[in-house]
Amino acid sequence: MSTLYDSPHQFEPLMPSERRQEPLLVKAHDLARAAGRLAGQPIAAELRGLLRAMNSYYSNRIEGQHTRPHELEQALRKDFSSDAALAARQRLAIAHIDAEQDLEARYGTEAQAPSLYSAVAVADIHRTLFERLPSEDLKSDQGVQIEPGLLRNREVSVGRHVAPAASSVQKLLDRWSGVYTGVRRGEAALVALAAAHQRLGWIHPFVDGNGRVMRLHTHTLLYALGHTGGVWSPLRGFARSVDRYYALLATADEPRRGDLDGRGNLSELALVDWIDYVLDTCMDQVQFMSGQLSLDTMERRIAACLTFEQETLRSGVRTEALRPLHYLFLSGQEMERGEFKRMTGLGDRTAVSLLTALVKRGLLRSDSPQGKVRFGMPHHALRFYFPALWPEAEADAASLGDS
User: Fold this and answer.
1) Which is the most buried residue in 77, 114, 234, 314, by most CB within 10 A?
2) At what angle do helices 69-76 and 45-62 cross, to 10 degrees?
3) How far is Cα 366 from Cα 353, in angstroms, rounded to an integer?
């Protein structure tokens, strides 16, 4: 067990030495190039909404407090469970989705990215997430009241890590801010955001919610630096390797392992291992989403979904919807209903029936009965559109008979 820390230098190193950064910078360079190509793709607004829901699901799954995907979908329709514990998890999931969107809007440009490395921004992330919850949901696992945006004023420990003294949290955050704000842009910024994630967890600035804040911080910073375009996030990768995520976080809390392990109080080698894992996880998610969003195969996947709807489910959906649906996906825009019907090539009455069936099945979305339509992303269509993107949602939809 470690002792309470009160020096702002007790969690050094905050960045690896130049020698140990070299291979990390090579990985960061490759990541930045791959992410840049992916982030530039236009995507349908409904896909952004789906990805935010998925991020919420995976971040809460890391904490062991997730809802099933269909329960999250119900909450998005304001249909909360009568079970109090499940309803609380649903509210937390919705709070994460809304907070992610707000934070991207607030800090979403490269000019704003450095401001994320401040105690004010860290508190703002915590507040933005937890202020959305009713008071009855704001209790830690130990029964302590969570104050949105308020730095902790009590001592805590997490596993083997005894967090620094509450009285030192502000000066530790100031040190954290000073180091990471000063990192140059480019590849080094990617190395820094990975390191900052772990060191923020070491400080443990809040009574509860630190993990969620760390992940929202990393997600928002990647977005602000222009690496994601809202198309991917490391949260899915962290959740799908959760044991390693927690193990490497904890190992990087450990003291230096001897004279060859840097010059700080904590292990430099363990910090390097953590950063390496984050960069690999990010690259894995970029490569995965690049395959999912392949324009060469998307038309074929939409066609497979429509064929299944027409021939197996007999839902009223027809394959003539392929051309306008594919256009909506590629453009990421909305379309007048009349134009959608014309693009099907069907007679007016048949086209109206088709459009009605598409809206009913969620394959088209609209904000009003006669309003413009946009590409829809229902969970039951994921196995056709984006196989393996969110397996839990696919399985959930199948078990409920939605497919």
Assistant:
1) 234
2) 130
3) 15
* φ and ψ of 162, to 5 deg: -90, 115
Amino acid in position 38: L
Contact 116, 218 (CB under 8 A): no
Q: What is the pLDDT along the chain (403 residues), one digit of tens a residue?
A: 445 556 777 899 999 999 999 999 999 999 999 999 998 777 667 788 899 999 999 999 999 988 999 999 899 889 999 999 999 999 999 999 999 999 999 999 999 999 999 999 999 999 999 999 999 999 887 778 999 999 999 998 887 878 899 999 999 999 999 999 999 889 999 999 999 999 999 999 999 999 999 999 999 999 999 999 989 999 999 999 999 999 999 999 998 988 888 788 899 999 999 999 999 999 999 999 998 888 778 899 999 999 999 999 999 999 999 999 999 988 888 999 999 999 999 999 999 999 999 999 999 999 999 999 999 988 889 999 998 899 998 888 877 765 5
For the chain, the straight-line distance linking the first and the last C-alpha, in angstroms and rounded, comes to 51
From CA 62, how far away is CA 75, in angstroms rounded? 20
User: d(Cα 51, Cα 53) in Å, to the nearest integer?
Assistant: 5
Distance from C-alpha of 366 to C-alpha of 150, rounded to nearest angstrom: 40
Rounded distance between C-alpha atoms, residue 92 and residue 392, angstroms: 19
Rounded distance between C-alpha atoms, residue 121 and residue 108, angstroms: 13
366 - beta bridge partners? 373
In sequence order, which ranges of 163-209 are alpha helices (DSSP H)? 169-181, 187-203
In the chain, the domains with their CATH numbers are: 18-292 (1.10.3290.10), 295-399 (1.10.10)
